[in-house]
Design a protein that fits this description.
- The protein is mainly α.
- The chain has one domain.
- Helices cover about 50% and strands about 5% of the residues.
- The protein contains 6 helices and 3 strands, in the order αβββααααα.
- α4 crosses α5 and α5 packs across α6.
Length: about 180
């Protein structure tokens, strides 16, 4: 395992970009979320401010989350991210940013970030959205498997981010989320 001191800013950027590029592949049928742009704050956290959505508050991914994510990505099989650091990076910044870029309102984007983190890592989000996440899991399962009880996570299926059936399930969830809080 990489020691915290060995993790450079470049490694952190690469980890966030790796996760973002996987999200781009996962969401390709829903819409193009574009490239990731960010700046590093004084404490090492990453500030995500979308120039396309200037009225939104910047999203911040805490340095500790990124450090844990870097360690996981260095040690794990490609895209098998059963990890709290990756979950936190998606939930706190990358997932909501993707939602905003898919024309969701801020509350919808937060729910979307929580659901994406849960889908990809198998870990529940921290914004009190567990009930909604369970409903979205059900919508996803029906769209992908035609069964309410089945749910799959990225770490259990090879090719998850590029699977057309998975894309169909994500599309169904995005449609549902856009009806929330409207």
């Amino acid at each position: 395992m990489l020691a915290r001191e060995e993790i450079t800013e470049e490694m952190k950027k690469e980890a966030l970009e790796e996760i973002w590029n996987a999200l781009k592949r996962l969401l390709c049928e829903v819409g193009d979320i574009g490239d990731l742009e960010f700046e590093i704050t004084r404490n090492g956290s990453f500030l995500l401010q979308d120039r396309k959505i200037p009225d939104e508050s910047p999203l911040i991914i805490e340095n500790d989350y990124i450090v844990v994510a870097v360690q996981t990505l260095e040690e794990s099989e490609p895209e098998r991210w059963e990890d709290i650091g990756v979950c936190d990076c998606i939930e706190s910044g990358l997932g909501p940013l993707a939602g905003l870029r898919l024309d969701m309102k801020e509350p919808q984007a937060i729910v979307f970030g929580d659901w994406l983190a849960h889908l990809i890592t198998g870990i529940s989000g921290g914004h009190g959205t567990d009930r909604i996440t369970a409903q979205l899991d059900e919508i996803f399962s029906v769209a992908v498997f035609n069964d309410r009880s089945l749910i799959t996570f990225a770490f259990t299926q090879e090719g998850f981010f590029d699977d057309p059936d998975i894309h169909k399930g994500v599309e169904a969830v995005v449609e549902k989320i856009k009806t929330l809080y409207s």
